[in-house]
Design a protein that fits this description.
Helix content is 35%, strand content 19%. By secondary structure, the chain is an alpha/beta fold. Bound molecules: nicotinamide-adenine-dinucleotide.
Length: 478
């Protein structure tokens, strides 16, 4: 379904994110017929380029980041005709009138702030001062949204000076992933799961986001961030909310976000013994974390595992174990919901018995898996075995799976449609920082050092213990 015609200005249009995700994504939506022909994309950045120069850069980005079979000469040419460029300095005065003259009346105006957050205030102020943004305009802001509660509040305040909350789209690209949205469909469009979706039947939940890459050239940035700020406060927290929230009364942006906010507010402080931080060591012919950092004594964590509790009726005594890290064994993101034992076993030989687990795979190979018990086939008596009820999106949807838009594409189209459901509201972000800040302050005050772990492993030893001591195990990262 095509969206309304739009003018999309990408501040930072020549940057890495624009080249890798935003521009190739827009091209794909154009090819899919979702971007109306009379829409315009305007790159705005510091570099001295003209329209032709930027179009060349966009063409190169498409060549590099769109799969070859999706590249079509005629389509690329038609797409580029809709692309222009204005040289602008967010902190300066030049370029704003030129940008204004490019903007058309009666189309949706969206401004993507794909620049450092320190520039958000300057952009918001100048868009307003030059009469470029109006009450119907939208702005899209990228992560990181602050590095603690105070800075997130300051960012919210600076944006709120010029834009209403309903105009602000804070991107968390995890929310744009097909399976993540499917989580809501599975929970709220099936009667099967919801009656069991509580502490009475769920033993625990595991959320894993494992990466194989290290910090490489991003050491200086990452040193000020670490896994807690870079991944947990935003992405893993959003996943936790979607699993734990109460059913919203309607699939409506504020109804959904109200329920997510309640979950974050119900999170208990995390005890120091329920936190394991790690830092990858040298190995596999590559340097360790500190070799990429500017500080050879850096205590920044490239891995974190946490046990969290949500203090409400539904989740009393059901722990949520979160872990994320770099340079791990495999690139894998999944949510696993482990159910409890049946109250009484009627089978003498319960040896083969294992828990039911609902696994939602976010990457790779998006899909769902429900681990079930069945009778082991054959004449050997009533023995049990576990088998997966497996649903891979690629298999279930066949060729259609190829057309599933990637997270950025979907989210940008949602901005044009004016649908904020999959974007974080200001109060949600602040609540997540209010939860994360004391955890970080705690380890800083204690002077905790992260535990070293080998690249290609599944993280530090202590993280295994975090679950072992509760009589549980992490799922294998594979
Ligand atoms: P980048 O350094 O590659 O690009 C920055 C862009 O901003 C360039 O186009 C540059 O010309 C422009 N710019 C810098 N100063 C400017 C100024 N004063 N006025 C106007 N334009 C200016 O950065 P990036 O990696 O593309 O990241 C952009 C934003 O997106 C950052 O906030 C980053 O945290 C966020 N982000 C990036 C990624 C990623 O994968 N690259 C992922 C998530 C979030």
């Amino acid at each position: 379904i095509p969206v309304d015609p739009f003018d999309l200005v990408i501040f930072g249009g020549t940057g890495d994110l624009a080249r890798r995700k935003i521009l190739p994504g827009l091209y794909r939506r154009f090819v899919a017929g979702q971007m109306p022909a009379d829409s315009r994309i305007i790159g705005a950045a510091r570099g001295e380029l003209d329209d032709a120069g930027f179009q060349k850069m966009v063409a190169e980005a498409i060549a590099e980041f769109v799969p070859a079979e999706r590249q079509d000469k005629a389509a690329i040419k038609a797409f580029l005709e809709r692309v222009g460029y204005v040289s602008i300095d967010a902190k300066g005065t030049g370029g704003w009138d030129a940008l204004k003259s490019r903007m058309r009346e009666n189309v949706v105006r969206a401004f993507y702030f794909s620049v450092a957050p320190a520039l958000f205030g300057d952009l918001a102020e100048r868009l307003h001062a030059h009469g470029i943004a109006d009450a119907w305009s939208r702005i899209v802001v990228e992560k990181p949204f602050g590095r603690d509660l105070a800075s997130a509040k300051a960012l919210n305040a600076v944006l709120a000076e010029h834009f209403d909350e309903h105009q602000i789209y804070r991107i968390d690209h995890y929310l744009g992933k097909e399976t993540v949205q499917n989580l809501m469909a599975v929970r709220f469009a099936n009667i099967l799961f919801e009656p069991l979706w509580k502490a009475e039947y769920i033993d625990h939940v595991q959320i894993t986001v494992a990466e194989t890459v290290g910090v490489e050239g991003r050491g200086a940035y990452y040193d000020k961030s670490g896994a807690m700020r870079d991944m947990v406060q935003n992405h893993l927290m959003q996943l936790l909310c979607l699993i734990a929230m109460e059913p919203p009364y309607h699939f409506d942006p504020d109804a959904v976000r109200d329920e997510k906010l309640k979950v974050i507010r119900a999170l208990d402080p995390v005890k120091p013994e329920d936190i394991v931080r790690g830092q990858y060591l040298p190995g596999g012919g590559q340097g360790g974390y500190v070799e990429h950092s500017e500080d050879p004594a850096s205590r920044t964590e490239s891995y974190i595992a946490l046990k969290c509790h949500i203090s409400n009726w539904r989740w009393k005594n059901t722990p949520f174990y979160l872990r994320t890290g770099k340079r791990l064994r495999a690139r894998a993101s999944e949510i696993a919901i482990t159910f409890k034992e049946p109250p009484h076993s009627i089978f003498d030989d319960a040896q083969g018995w294992r828990e039911n687990v609902l696994v939602i795979r976010l990457q790779p190979n998006e899909g769902m898996n429900l681990m079930m018990m069945i009778k082991e086939p054959g004449p050997g008596g009533m023995r049990l075995m576990q088998v997966p009820l497996d649903m891979s999106f690629a298999d279930a949807l066949g060729a259609e799976a190829e057309d599933i838009p990637d997270a950025y594409e979907r989210l940008i189209m949602d901005v044009i449609r004016g649908n904020q459901t999959l974007f974080m509201r200001g109060d949600e972000v602040e609540a997540a920082w209010a939860w994360a800040d004391p955890i970080i302050a705690g380890w800083e005050a204690r002077g905790d050092r992260p535990q070293g772990y080998d690249p290609g492993s599944s993280g530090p030893e202590d993280a295994l213990m975090l679950m072992h001591r509760d009589g549980r195990r992490w799922r294998e990262i594979k």
